[in-house]
Amino acid sequence: MPALLTDLDTAVNTLLARVDGPVHLALPLGIGKPNALVNALYHRMATDPSRPLRILTALSLEKPAGASELERHFLAPLVARVFGDYPDLAYVKAARAQALPAHIELREFFVKTADYLGNDAAQQGFICSNYSLAVRDMLAQGANVLAQAVAVRREAGGRRRYSLSGNPDLTADFVDQCRTLGQPLLVVAVLNEQLPFMPGTAEVGEDFFDLIVDAPEGHHALFAPPNPAVSKADYAIGLHAASLLPDGGTLQIGIGSLGDAIAQALLLRERRNGEFRALIDTLGRAAPLAGRHTGRFEQGLYGCSEMFANGLLQLLDAGLIRRRVYPDLALQRLANAGRLPAAPSLAAVQALLADGALAPQLTPAALAHWQHLGLLHPALRLDGDRLHCEGLSCANDVNLLPAGMLGAAWRGTVAMHGGFFLGPRAFYQRLRDMSDGELADIAMTRIAFVNELYDSPGAPEALKRAQRRDARFINTTMKMTLLGAASSDALADGRVVSGVGGQYNFVAQAHALAGARSVLALRATHDNAAGLQSNLVWSHANCTIPRHLRDLVVTEYGVADLRGATDAECVQRLLCIADSRFQQGLMHEAQAHGKLAPDWQLPEAARHNTPEALKALLRPAREAGALPDFPFGTDLDDDELRIVRALKKLKHASHHPLELLQLALASLGPQRAVPAAYLQRLGLDDARSLKDVVLRRLLAANL
């Protein structure tokens, strides 16, 4: 039985006493980290060079602080309100400042996007690994302690139940592999009552852990990034992506504005179908694509995504994610064929008999199997050659079963599989408020199940293939070459922006599954201090997805189907969804390298791919409320949103001298009134320095 500890100092003492020599600490990604314990351990070990510490993890989250004094003033009350008592990780602060002690090292396989581009230590400590191989690679790094924040349910009589909550993704496989290999591993749970209790595959027994820490500091708020605003480009991409998903199919999407855009587009397709069809007709003119799916959802969708994001929860609550999958191949095949009744019935028995999945005579093992799946009544028992159940009796022949010997409902069916979750405050609260019946629709499980097709515990490959019907795996990328290679994790010079994560896993699945497609989405351009650049390029030095795995590519200007295409067709189709300001240059480059005929010309319909044209196309839907800035709400109030918009304009202008000059000139006229609360919020209420006076005028001009 695990030791139960109630204070952090004792927990740290016990951990250090049980592990000899260096501590190689494995932590879940995202909200699964037990921050309070990790900080206590870090502070203790930072002062003791005789005990090296290696931290192995991914996605170490930190509350936003702001890059400028203006941003810091604005963010302080917002962060206090949204993040509450969430404690930042001490090792993140040190790593960001490149001030980790010499005997402490941080090794991550996924980092917060673009946060460590200029951090040599973080770049050197990065482990390039597919999500599904992270367990293998962390074990190779010598992990000997695994610490995780764990949800708890306190029941009558002092009994406790434990759940890995939003992070069963790697933990179960990690523990299994260590125990199989005989590799020493101390498993530490830190209870956090703020974590939603996810039942089913995420629930574990008390004996899963070696130490359980129930300290007050562990029950802190979860990291809850507010919903981002959805831009016009994101909505156009989301609408295109939503038209690629067949009814009855399988969906994977990620977090952020693009994930929200896709979810909102799917809701629009279901609830305001005429408007959706009209938008697709309009947006699809630049790159016509046969076989789009624009009808309402009769069968619904099944969600299978490494990240269970807020957009997927919205689709689940709206009833779009409702196609249930079964934990048994025979049942799943019947369901796929439309031959499985909604509840156990004599017709289901006959269908299983006809398929050879059920033998006429039940053995004890078969009886237990079909009771576990819900086909047979839990009280049914086999006595010799007779079956008995609550006053009913018949010979052991399933052809003779009376309806009273059948179960009431199928068991173990779900509509959503996920590996981890991360979302805004409302997302966590909704999960905490769900009934057991609602939670049963969601199975948080191992990443080996979600991200791969090969056999994993309790899920043979054949079952996964049957469940993942007509899958659409939608992921984002940063750069796409005209020959179909994608760069999603690093810059051309090798510096890591984020990590591969599970993207390669899903792209490979799309090519291995019948009827599946990979969808890589990207905005056609990006604008930063280096100026406006195309994200569709001739070549790029970093490659996340090789060109031989090219499939569907989506920008705000359309969809390019690259599967089975020649190199020339690939170039042509991508040029049709590129920003028109870059099309000619890209076309000439492809022609210079012999990949495009010298006389090929862009179709007329593809020559107007501009932000202005896109804005005009989407304006009616925006004005009708079909494409709101925050489709699933926001933690910011109206005043904060107003300030944010102004600050974004100023930040963008700071990277573009001409734009900044124009803003400065516009601010020289009569000064507009600014609410006093805004000035106080930004620390500009007593502007005395020239810098503050200028900022105050610029703010007034941009509100």
UniProtKB/TrEMBL annotation:
It comes from the Bacteria. Keywords: Hydrolase. Pfam families: AcetylCoA_hyd_C. Gene3D superfamilies: 4-hydroxybutyrate coenzyme like domains, Acetyl-CoA hydrolase/transferase C-terminal domain. InterPro entries: AcetylCoA_hyd_C, AcetylCoA_hyd_C_sf, ActCoA_hydro, NagB/RpiA_transferase-like. Residues 424-590 form the Acetyl-CoA hydrolase/transferase C-terminal domain. The keyword Acyltransferase does not apply. The keyword Hydrolase applies. GO terms for molecular function: hydrolase activity. Signal peptide: none annotated. PANTHER family: ACETYL-COA HYDROLASE, ACETYL-COA HYDROLASE-RELATED. This is Acetyl-CoA hydrolase/transferase C-terminal domain-containing protein.
